[in-house]
Write a structure and sequence with these properties.
The structure is a single chain. By secondary structure, the protein is an alpha/beta fold. It has 4 domains: about 110 residues, 3-Layer(aba) Sandwich (Rossmann fold); about 120 residues, Transcription Regulator spoIIAA; about 100 residues, Transcription Regulator spoIIAA (2-Layer Sandwich), CATH 3.30.750.200; about 55 residues, OB fold (Dihydrolipoamide Acetyltransferase, E2P), CATH 2.40.50. It is about 35% helix and about 20% strand. The chain contains 14 helices and 20 strands. Strands 16-17-18-20-19 form a 5-stranded mixed beta barrel. A 4-stranded parallel beta sheet has the order 1-2-3-4, with helices on both faces. Strand 9 and strand 10 form a beta hairpin. Helix 10 packs parallel to helix 12 and helix 13 runs parallel beside helix 14. The chain binds iron/sulfur cluster (SF4). Iron/sulfur cluster binds next to helix 7. The site of iron/sulfur cluster has 10 residues, from helix 7.
Amino acid sequence: MNVYDSWRIAAMLDARGMCATKSVADADIIILNTCSVREKATNKVFSELGRIRDTKKPDALFGIVGCVAREAGAKAFHRIPELNFVLGPQSYHRLPEILENPDTKLLNIDLAGLEKFDELPQMIKAPTVSYIPIQEGCNHCCTYCIVPYTRGREISRAFDDVMRDTAAAAKTGAVEICFLGQNVNGYKYTDENGKTYRLSDLIRATAVMPEIRRIRFTSSYPTEMTDDLIDMFRTEPKLLPFLNMPIQSGSPDVLKRMNRPYSLDSYLEIIDKLRAARPDIQISSDFIVGFPGETDSDFEKTVDIARRVKYINSYSFKYSPRPHTAAALMPNQIPENIKRARLAILDNELNEIQREFNEQCINKTMLCLCEGPDKTGRHLLYRTPYMQQCIVTKKTDQAPETMAQIKITAANRASLRGEFVKD
Ligand code: SF4
């Protein structure tokens, strides 16, 4: 979501005749787009702002947008008095106001809804992989998560608005569409005639666009994985056979304290249904280790579920207490050294599963999407349907095909090597 927001901010400034500079020292405006989902990222924001202040041109405008801005509010101006603007994730479309009135301080951290999508200019040239937000905010209230505070309650965009943006992306260069939302499969929009649209309707309507070759969505909540959506994996070949569906913990007790109201059985049942619909589907997850009160036995259950499901491409983090969340006030916070040790064990397991899966891909041929040359210029980087990076040796100076059949020839944990099938 932050990558998408940054693109839209850049496009908005482009439309006003500005362009990106290579260094902060050359910029007339510096915008730090921030994430508060983990403590470490939040802590970095103010030290980074201090560095920007000391490096920038004296009259350059600078400020923060995103979730740390929403969380810090006016306090940000006290910590860094030179800041010109502090704009929350729902109000960055107001950024041009500071260009018109550079001598004022601009503060807006309202959770105003979806106005920003209407006020932002359309992108002139869409990226090959285009992110299309379909909903914002979240109603799930997991006890560790700051998102309901920073992004607000869940709200879905109108079906026609999403399809207008998707069609515009398809006409201006998009080949892959990634529908975005904090709770993306909770998408639900009812129009004035009482017709309700779900994520499956968006996928179906996008799949008929000839320019669009791949469709995916992130991030999913397990209990919102409805049958109509699971069925899309059976009927819609453009929908990639890869799904991020975070379980967070394998312990029923921890899940309860996290306020994630699904049982392991019901979660595994959804995975069975997905695999029945699309036998080649692979699942990834997010994990939090060291949640308050997590015992050795709870943690073992997390490692166990990772082995059972064989998640690929997963994200694992140490629990960090966030302001405005219930878990931050829970007793039995886990000491840092235990969290660190558990994370190392889980990472090791997840890396091993990833390496095994990558090795199983050797000799398979996959339709992959080109992301451009690597740093040396001698190779091309492709992305497989499972989001693995595949390095292919460039043979000619001709522009690479956006989509190519690639035979996987070698693999390690982090990436694949491949060759063009037609060659
Ligand atoms: S479902 Fe995701 S975004 Fe929503 S509260 Fe839980 S962790 Fe946060």
